[in-house]
Amino acid sequence: MANNQTNRGEGSAKELGGKIKKNVGALTGNERMEAEGHAKELEGKTQKEAAKAAERTKGKGEELIGKAKNRIGQVIDDEQMAAEGKAKELKGNARQNMNKPS
């Protein structure tokens, strides 16, 4: 998770830096600076969205594993297993919700 969070943070920083450079270029009439800023902004947004997609995938896996563990726990009448499964399922749902596309 730390790697995806790092990529997400770096992407946000690139996106912001690109926006600033783009706007400075627009204000000063420097088309090259404006274009470079726009490219950096898009690069950052792409990096950020890729990290979020990876986290959503991880969350879906947690959700599915949790559902299975919950159901197995219910079938074999193991309350602890069912509770652990439900917790993992909810964790996966939360991870997906926190990383929705922008």
UniProtKB/TrEMBL annotation:
Start and end residues of each CsbD-like domain: 8-56
InterPro entries: CsbD, UPF0337_stress_rsp, YjbJ_sf
Domain of life: Bacteria
Compositional bias (Basic and acidic residues): 31-63
SUPFAM superfamilies on file: Hypothetical protein YjbJ
Region: Disordered, residue numbers: 1-63
Similarity-based family: Belongs to the UPF0337 (CsbD) family.
Name the UniProt record assigns to this protein: CsbD-like domain-containing protein
Lineage, broadest ranks: Bacteria, Pseudomonadati, Myxococcota, Polyangia, Polyangiales
